[in-house]
Fold this protein.
Amino acid sequence: MYRVELDRVACDGIFACLVRDERFVEDETGLATVDPEAEGVVSVDRTDDRVVATFDGDVDDATLAASACPPGAITVREAEE
């Protein structure tokens, strides 16, 4: 398992992440978030400033989404047990 953190303050709505990983979606405010119903998503905690999601499975798409994010708003790391 791994954890994805999305800094919504840093997110600028370019949505390069959406092209790299289908679990990232646009929310009602025009910023990126994680679809809690998407395959491989274990949990999603969302505040106004941050989205923290736990994913199961292959980390490659999330890593590509993070590296494509121009403002560096996405961080991917191993989930703490």
Remarks:
- Residues 20 and 65 are 5 Å apart (CA to CA).
- The chain has a mean pLDDT of 94.
- The chain has one domain: 2-78.
- Residues 60-68 form the longest helix (9 residues).
